[in-house]
Amino acid sequence: MTTFVKNIKLVKAGNELELSSITIEDGKIVEIGGVEPAGAEVIDGNGHIVSPGFVDVHTHLREPGFEHKETIATGTASAAKGGFTTICAMPNTKPVPDSVENMQLINGLIEKSAVIRVLPYGSLTKDISGEVKTDMAELKANGAVAFSDDGVGIQLASTMYEQMQQAAKLDAVVVAHCEDNSLIYDGVMHEGTRNKELGLPGIPSICESVQIARDVLLAEAAGARYHVCHVSTKESVRAVRDAKAAGIKVTAEVCPHHLLLEEMDIPSDDANWKMNPPLRAADDKDSLHAALLDGTIDCIATDHAPHTVEEKCCGMVGAPFGIVGFETAFPLLYTQFVKTGKWTLEQLIDWMSVKAAQIFDLPYGTLEVGASADFVLIDLEAEKTVDAEGFVSKGRNTPFNGWVAQGWPVLTIFEGKIVYQEAQ
Ligand SMILES: NC(=O)N[C@@H](CC(=O)O)C(=O)O
Ligand SMILES: [Zn+2]
Ligand SMILES: [Zn+2]
């Protein structure tokens, strides 16, 4: 079975485009820029750009346990619509992937329902409760892509250190949601200016940064590979930058919302603006941009975190943290930062695909002969308004509703097959 995708533009250095084609055989890329093979099925790319399928190393699919928020079917369909073909699923499900049995249960659900590649995390502790350590070797042997207790920070340094020592032996990556519980103060948004105006309890920046500072030293001592989730503050950026300079094996991600928004943008006590970590101050946002550009932060990850309309209805206090991200990530970043000349198209695509894959040694996020035929065609001209009601995800929880953006995925191909096609 041969498929020929013609009339597409490859993104070369910077913003340079080159008219090309991709030939697919048995789910793999066999030629780039070749001629149409006789008898091939032909897809006309209509002159759109082609990017490697995006790789999202931080997502929440909610199944098993919270199918009212999202399922593997709806979450992966949403990701495909956003141009993603590989996503790593965080372990805050019920049950948690903390044993061979639970890992196999989750693998079975993925096998049954996912329309793109889902690589599950194993947890660092049983039930992500921070107490009993998991057996990482057996979780890895059963498909854990890496290890995290995302949703909560690991409070005890000894727990983190001992799991880093296990990870170092396995050459696995420890992925950390950094949050010191003694410094949360029941906060619902950034401890700064806007929370005082709204009369809402704040989460100080140190809640995140002190745990990163601790962890990079633990990673150094353990010789482990350590990846920081959703970096949001300038002090966190400094801790990661200093650690990299010291030769510690640390990588980091940033979320689209922390690059696009800041505390002063929060219009009111609206839970669609509540996420963890929260939207920080303008200078924090600036430091995240600088960190991406100088390589301190390695990649962009959505932290797609769907919740129901009911849960998000009634102000920030009491609502769960989290916003959805798959279906808006590329268009918003492209419109705000590439169209404005801050970034090149090549940089944005790199941060959303190849750089993300490299952190976990994944052979995806690349357009190379021999690679899995995972890619997305994007219409850079099409302009649309973000409409949460039209999301494929079950989640409607986004602060970007009504934003106008360009650069929408029109066709997503995973292992050579169409998994999303824009309605004509
Ligand atoms: N980011 C969030 O605000 N929420 C995430 C948990 C997490 O990523 O910490 C969730 O699972 O809802
Ligand atoms: Zn988190
Ligand atoms: Zn998360």
Automatic annotation (TrEMBL):
Belongs to the metallo-dependent hydrolases superfamily. DHOase family. Class I DHOase subfamily. Coiled coil: none annotated. Gene3D superfamilies: Metal-dependent hydrolases (3.20.20.140), Urease, subunit C, domain 1 (2.30.40.10). One of its GO terms (molecular function) is dihydroorotase activity. Binds 2 Zn(2+) ions per subunit. Pathway: Pyrimidine metabolism; UMP biosynthesis via de novo pathway; (S)-dihydroorotate from bicarbonate: step 3/3. Its EC number is 3.5.2.3. NCBIfam families: PRK09357.1-2, pyrC_multi. Its cofactor is Zn(2+). This is Dihydroorotase. Residues 47-236 form the Dihydroorotase catalytic domain. The lineage of its organism: Bacteria, Bacillati, Bacillota, Bacilli, Bacillales. It comes from Caryophanon tenue. PANTHER family: ALLANTOINASE. Zn(2+) 2 binds at residues 150, 177, 230. Substrate binds at residues 60-62, 92, 276, 307, 321-322.
